[in-house]
Design the sequence.
């Protein structure tokens, strides 16, 4: 390693002597609008992709993801997290591009009215490897929903067990026995003391999310 000028490694090369890829961020924004959907944006060539952007010099990945959501999707104050680094050298036909994939869960009411949403089952034609990112995001959402009640806040601040079961059946794309579902999710629910009358049946109890992890058996039940 040189002690003067530009530092070099054991082969005598400096950092700039090595080829470097471009770095991008892409964000899968999931929401529930009758079915589980993902937000997409149109590219100049008419194809569709997830909101994304290239990393600017000196910029953090989270800041780039925030910028992509704001500039490409009109979304601000979104909570998101990293999913995976996609590093296939052939993933982008424009050149060597690494992408840090992110995921966000946003209630439908918070999605801009002019946003383009597509069912997560209809993303095969997305640009690059964005269909893979959507799949990663869906799997991640399902794992998170098995660990705590509705972490994306899709059901709102308060809801009935039926509301929650209907939501989970959309997210997991399957149906659940109502009594078994209630038993597995009840640990993460806190009664509000309020009731809601729906139709001619007896009033349904209204709950809110409780800051408590769900039992490990819940994941096995939901993911069966």
Sequence:
């Amino acid at each position: 390693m040189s002690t003067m000028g530009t530092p070099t490694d054991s082969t005598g090369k400096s950092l700039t002597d090595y080829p470097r890829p471009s770095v991008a961020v892409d964000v899968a924004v999931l929401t529930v609008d009758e079915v589980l959907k993902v937000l997409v944006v149109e590219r100049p060539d008419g194809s569709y992709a997830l909101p994304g952007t290239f990393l600017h010099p000196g910029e953090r990945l989270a800041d780039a993801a925030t910028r992509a959501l704001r500039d490409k999707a009109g979304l601000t104050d979104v909570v998101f997290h990293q999913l995976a680094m996609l590093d296939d050298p052939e993933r982008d036909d424009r050149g060597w591009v690494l992408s840090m994939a992110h995921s966000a869960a946003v209630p439908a009411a918070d999605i801009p009215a002019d946003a383009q949403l597509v069912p997560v089952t209809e993303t095969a034609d997305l640009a690059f490897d964005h269909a893979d990112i959507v799949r990663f995001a869906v799997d991640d959402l399902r794992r998170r929903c098995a660990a705590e009640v509705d972490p994306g806040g899709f059901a709102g601040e308060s809801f009935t067990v039926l509301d929650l079961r209907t939501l989970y059946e959309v997210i997991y794309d399957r149906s659940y026995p109502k009594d078994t579902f209630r038993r597995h999710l009840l640990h993460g629910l806190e009664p509000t003391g309020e009731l809601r009358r729906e139709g001619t049946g007896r009033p349904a109890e209204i709950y809110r999310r409780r800051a408590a992890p769900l039992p490990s058996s819940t994941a096995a039940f939901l993911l069966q």
Observations:
- The chain has five helices and nine strands.
- The CA atoms of residues 10 and 108 lie 54 Å apart.
- The chain has two domains: 21-147, 161-222.
- The radius of gyration is 22 Å.
